[in-house]
Specification:
Layout: E1 2-10, E2 16-21, H1 30-43, E3 49-56, H2 66-69, E4 80-89, E5 92-101, H3 102-116, H4 127-146
Antiparallel strand pairs: 1-2, 1-3, 4-5
Length: 154
């Protein structure tokens, strides 16, 4: 989790334009946020400047640690699985083609199977469920980038 402070400068037309923002690594907790925000508000007063704060939350996943302890392998096209994702966005159909390794597909299947039911097997996870999991992650990443993430929607 981190906080981002955005500063916009008032233009001649009366609107505000982006001036600068703090880096992702800068503000990791509310104590630092309060200190930095206080300094910025003094240095960039209203109405000449507009200051806003965004909170970004990150998600973590269990990963297979074995690949990190082995030498990297060369991935060939034969090891790739191509998934075509069709999705609706504001009435338009978007076609997104992504390539993932067979190992990545297996990892996603494990995550789905074991995350839902301890008795479920990896082979019971369908291609559609894998695509849906990838779509959800893509939507999550887009919402995080835009600052529109709503945890209640998941």
């Amino acid at each position: 989790m981190y906080y981002e402070i955005n500063v916009a400068k008032k233009s001649k037309s009366g609107g505000y334009s982006h001036f600068f923002a703090t880096a992702k690594r800068s503000i990791k907790d509310t104590d630092v946020l309060a200190s930095v925000l206080e300094t910025i508000l003094v240095a960039y007063p209203e109405p000449e400047y507009s200051v806003s704060v965004s909170k970004y939350e990150e998600r973590g996943y269990r990963v297979d640690c074995r690949p990190f302890t082995q030498t990297p392998e060369v991935i060939t096209n034969k090891q790739l699985v191509e998934l075509v994702i069709l999705t609706l966005n504001k009435g338009d159909i978007w076609k997104l083609t992504i390539k993932v390794t067979k190992k990545q597909v297996q990892a996603i299947k494990r995550f789905i199977a074991y995350g839902q039911d301890e008795t479920r097997t990896i082979s019971s996870v369908t291609k559609e469920e894998v695509i849906e999991a990838i779509e959800e992650e893509i939507y999550y990443q887009i919402e995080m980038e835009r600052g529109t993430f709503n945890p209640n929607s998941y």
